[in-house]
Amino acid sequence: MESSLILVFMFTSLVVFMLSGAGLAFVLGAIAFISTILLWGPSALIVAVLNTFETMTSEALMAIPLYVLMASILQKSAIIEALYDAMETWFSGVNGGLAVGTIAICTILAAMTGVVGAAVAAMGILALPSMLARGYHPPLALGAICAGGTLGILIPPSVVTIVYAITAQISIGKMFAAGIVPGLILAGSYAAYIVIRTWLNPALAPKPEQASAVPLSAKLAKTKSLILPGLVVLGVLGSIYAGIATPTEAAAVGVLGAAASAIVTRKLTLPMLSEAAADTLRVTAMILWITIGARAFISVFVATGGADSLLNFVETLEASRWIVLGVMVLVLIFLGLFLDEIGIILLCVPVFLPIVTVLEFDPLWFGVLFMITAQMAYITPPFGYTLFYLKGVLPEGISIGQVYRGVIPFFLIQVVVLILFALFPSLVTWLPEMLSARMK
Amino acid sequence: QGATKWRMQALWGGGTTPMLYEEKFCDRVRELTGGSLDITPFAGGQIVPSAQAFDAVRGGAFEMMKTFDGYTAGKIKAHGFSSTVPFGFPDADQYEAWFYERDGLAMAKESYEPAGLTYIAPTVYGEEPIHSKVEIRKIADMDGLKGRFVGLASAVMADFGVSVSPLPTSEVYSALDKGLIDFADRGDIKANYEEGIHEVAKYLILPGVHQPSTATAYVANTGAYSRLDDQQKAALEVAAREVSGALRQNIISANGEYLKKYQEAGVEIIDLAAEDVAEARGKAVESWKAAAGEDPLAKRMMESQMALMQELRLL
Amino acid sequence: MTAIAEGITALNRLLFALAKWLVYAIVLLMLWEVLSRYLVQAPTSWAPELATLIFGPFFLLGGPYLLHIGGHVAVDVLSERATGGFAKILKIIGFILAAAFGAILLWFAVPLAVQSWEYGETSYSAWNPVIWPAKAFLPLASALLLLQALAEIVLTLGDEEAA
Ligand code: NA
Ligand code: NA
């Protein structure tokens, strides 16, 4: 079959099957199986099993249950509720204060892990109940978590960044350094958007009663609710940056910290640990079974040359360098509608990087643009993995439609920031260049 | 009559030097068969993870693969000896001689036969370096350090007193950077430079005793292979042998170029003394024997390699 | 039929309730590795590897029961609005896809798990454990998913008869 036909076939069948309301894992798997039988031969179905064996022993993906467990224990020990209570008091003057606080927590979590599923599921458990309980407009709260949860791609450590660096053959350290400033700018943009939006429409984020009257002493008194979560964060970040643990091992340190905090708040009981474990298995199984389906889908897509026509088109494109760059970014965003980031990197980077080099763009800078499109891919409706991960931890009564509506403004912010970095490459490159100059 | 179309799962990332050589291999096969055998190479991990390619080719998802036998040494013990041997042949040419001039190739074929796979030919190249944050001037200095090694090397290095953590490749840079480990193996000299390992490890130790020489392998599904004509089969062998020499020489040349870059970046290159390495090789024999265990083919491979090493006065 | 379907559900519920505790084993193994590497400078050869071997069975065993409690995420923008017979048809399509997914994984995973056992396949690490027990959880979980999907179809149709 013609490769452009394969692309259309797999994309449309994904949308159609998905709208039937079947589980996403099985939709991905079923399309992969049908396409494999039709386009590749039934014996190639073995590939789905082989990829699953690899998923089963992935050290990086093991961060998912660990962070979800940490989040669940913290949530059940009333530590997070106390934190949000305190944030409500501190930020009582700030419009959308809790959502801004959520972005701040997402940024901290981004410095702990680069596995998006881990961050989003953890934030869904940590932040969502507190915001909804205070009457926050669900789409705003959901959008903030989805967008904030993807910050971990840009802010080191990050698995996607490592895979990009290895595939593009550039320094992992420089690539990490290049992500820091853009990651913080994105986080700042999200926060700015929330403040402006809720200032224009205060009903989206109700402020507590007697908002203006909170005395300083009351604010300081609530500061102690920061101690326990602060120590957990310190334990995780400290063990990563002091060279005591790998990022996944650090997540286990986080679980230990959460359990210790639960002892302090006298909430550590066997039933609580049992419930936290059940939450963890529910979320982990949901994400990992999707991963099984997604890997099967990507395999057959690559093996049958699904993207060849797109990639060939880019390769033969004769236009000004900026138009070529724009087309490459559009291709990345389009593929991001239905493939996962690692799959896109393995598929596109070997094709795009020589073009980037010929056009005399900086591969490091292109890498950051790539990571931002990866973040966009994670939150683009209808098929963004974070949307599904978050849906998996949503309370009853909130539909995926509300998640879809919530992410659109954040997606647009990412578009604006992407254009900003395209126009001003030095925003991306000055930190890695300064660091490497200092090393010499 | 249409061309026979094959899919080949390769080991390397798209756009890397060794992957370019896999593309050359496929071009050369097309050329030698007048276009009658058309192989499409897929980069490592694109379709199945490299370590799973063995079962994918057995199952018929691909007609052939470029594999590293070390991945399947847990299934087939002999593959520990047809991939890379810690403290083994110090020179890639000696290792390739074992394949082509001794019984290496025949035994490699024998190891794949029961699985329904046909070993075509190896690609043999030289050492991978050791990167260290601390000075290592002799093998004994490794005793008590924390190191990252995988496969048989992790057992052998442990026998030399190293505290081994088998971290994934993607974690090596960060683990060295943060001091989680003192020294590590990763990829070849050039690839490691491109990942920026020189930024986090100020010493580069040669020879890379944990992996002094390496063989990767072209392996085909026996069913698919038996449907080829003699010209096509010969083309696979010829192209494979050409690529082996060409890639090895490319690596030698790149090593020279990149060692200079390491030095310019302030990395000290330390050469271990030949006598020190030879003495350690004698000790490593015990680890080899443990790895071969009671497996008859693995033992034969090991003994055949040791015989050649003794003749060359390496043991 | 309904009794069998409920039996399958009870079995998967039990396995879920047992498997969930494995996450604490993963936590303890990782912490043990951090301690032994950092405090006694002697990383174990087995703790991190055992953790990764437990990880697969952990999330695989959660999948079948997740089907029963509706925990596999779906896009419900349309199906939410469907009512009566059409809603039921959509549900059953979903379960058929899940059954097909389980059946195909089962069909291809069984021979691979059996071969791993025949080879006595080990991980070729310093610890070098046999790995067929971990691999065997894939066909097991696939079979349980298939059974649960069939059970869900029976239970969905059973609703109709009762109504
Ligand atoms: Na991160
Ligand atoms: Na998407």
How would you describe this structure to a colleague?
The complex is a heterotrimer of chains A (440), B (315) and C (163). By secondary structure, chain A is mainly α. Chain A has one domain (58-268, 304-439). Helices cover 75% and strands 0% of the residues of chain A. Chain A is globular. Chain A starts with a helix and ends with a helix. The mean pLDDT of chain A is 90. Chain B is of the alpha/beta class. Chain B has helices spanning 17-32, 53-58, 92-100, 104-112, 152-159, 172-178, 189-194, 222-226, 230-264, 274-292, 296-311, and strands spanning 4-9, 37-42, 64-68, 117-125, 130-132, 146-148, 163-164, 183-185, 203-206, 214-221, 268-271. In chain B, strand 6 (146-148), helix 5 and strand 7 (163-164) form a beta-alpha-beta unit. The longest helix of chain B is centred in the C-terminal third of the chain and has 35 residues, at 230-264. The mean pLDDT of chain B is 95. Chain C is an all-alpha fold and 163 residues long. In chain C, 76% of the residues lie in helices and 0% in strands. Chain C has 5 helices and no strands. In chain C, helix 3 packs parallel to helix 5. Chains A and C meet through helix 1, helix 2, helix 3, helix 4 and helix 14 of A and helix 1, helix 2, helix 3, helix 4 and helix 5 of C. The complex binds sodium ion (2 copies). Residues 110, 113-114, 152, 155-158 of chain A line the site of one sodium ion.
Rg calc of chain A: 22 Å
Please provide the ordered H/E string of secondary-structure elements of chain C: HHHHH
The amount of beta strand of chain A, in percent, is: under 5%
Uncertain segments of chain A: none
Largest sheet of chain A: none
**Total beta strand runs of chain C:** 0
Count, helices of chain A: 22
Output the structural class of chain A: mainly alpha
- Greatest interface and its participating residue counts: A-C, 65 and 59 residues
The SSE string of chain A, one letter per element, is: HHHHHHHHHHHHHHHHHHHHHH
Separation, N- and C-terminal Cα atoms of chain C:
17 Å
